[in-house]
Design goal:
Length: about 325
């Protein structure tokens, strides 16, 4: 694909993705390979979850996408333009919330936004107040606009950071761990807001180390582990590609576990009145029949729908660190 002739972002929203990286790699000076040959494609209009345990390379990738650091090798395109080269023409179309907003605690939320807006050379000062009012309204902070931000909760600060990212119309929002450190209520508020933002067509790229968050909010996801991309695609497809767990409910859990093992079931976990495991690669009707003919009283026999967590474990062979 040739370079577009103008410095304007591709108006079609980048045919090959709002974000597209090819073999993107970052090796830090100390030798740490933080991102290793990443091929990422973020479809226009998606809510794209960038998922991985702490230290898997998410923040480093985001910093390369935003032109904050240079890749060691490979390419990154955002809105169809190469980064970091086209940062000046691309970044005005991108709202970013990376590592929490920088706020003046002694200023009100509204005044902090006025400062953000004033720092944008393309923002017309005559319409500043209207933009700030609209952004506060968008994130539900109108009532708290006059309060000093040092009195804000963490969730309110994150919402104010989002408001800052929304002062201008954006085609892409990049949010690095937007719910990190928030209580459940704060998390819900941010997730609701992300869904609302996406519903008007803005592409949202958000990183998270929380699997359930990605399942609740995102249409698409990429899974990172140790700097490498494990998989990417529609969230529904990612989980569907993995078989769920076989769950047998029975008062004879010990016997059931033995028979299930003979039948090739993997990773068996025995509970009080249930046994779960990875379904064997054979007709499950035969497995059920084997249980019954061994005298196991089977009260329930199902395969639970795979979650993204099951997919992650199946793909990496590792558990998912859900700390934090
Ligand atoms: N400036 C740096 N110099 C050297 N190593 C770094 C630097 N920044 C990050 N790393 C290392 O690169 C790896 C990936 O870090 P990164 O912050 O991108 O991961 P992450 O997935 O965003 O994790 P977290 O959620 O903890 O921020 C880690 O091993 C980290 O220690």
């Amino acid at each position: 694909m040739g370079e577009p002739a103008t410095a304007e972002p591709d108006p079609a929203g980048a045919g090959d993705g709002v974000i597209a990286t090819r073999a993107l790699t970052k090796r830090f000076r100390g030798g740490q390979l933080a991102v290793d040959g990443l091929d990422l494609t973020v479809p226009a209009g998606s809510v794209f979850g960038f998922l991985g345990p702490n230290g898997s390379g998410k923040t480093t990738t985001i910093r390369m996408l935003m032109g904050l650091i240079e890749p060691t090798s490979g390419t990154a395109r955002v809105l169809g333009q190469p980064m970091p080269r086209a940062a000046r023409s691309v970044l005005p179309h991108v709202g970013a919330l990376i590592e929490g907003p920088a706020l003046y605690g002694f200023l009100s939320g509204g005044d902090n936004l006025m400062r953000y807006d004033a720092a944008d050379p393309t923002a017309d000062p005559r319409t500043r107040r209207a933009r700030v009012t609209a952004a506060l309204d968008r994130v539900g902070l109108t009532a708290a606009a006059g309060k000093k931000t040092k009195a804000y909760s963490l969730g309110m600060k994150q919402r104010l950071g989002l408001a800052a990212a929304l002062l201008q119309p954006r085609r892409l929002l990049v949010l690095d761990e937007p719910t990190n450190g928030l209580d459940p209520q704060g998390m819900r508020e941010i997730r609701t807001l992300v869904r609302e933002l996406a519903s008007d067509g803005t592409t949202v790229f958000l990183s998270s180390h929380l699997l359930d968050e990605i399942e609740q909010v995102c249409t698409h996801a990429a899974v990172m582990a140790r700097g490498r991309l494990i998989t990417q695609g529609a969230v529904a497809d990612l989980a569907a590609g993995t078989r769920g767990r076989l769950v047998v409910t029975t008062p004879d859990a010990g016997d059931a576990a033995r028979v299930l093992k003979e039948q090739g079931t993997g990773d068996i976990v025995v509970g009080d009145d249930r046994v779960t495991g990875e379904p064997p690669d054979r007709d499950l009707a035969e497995v059920n029949a084997a249980l019954v003919s061994a005298g196991v009283r089977v009260r329930g026999f199902t395969v639970e729908r795979a979650s993204l967590e099951d997919a992650f474990v199946a793909l990496t062979g590792e558990g998912f660190d859900v700390a934090g």
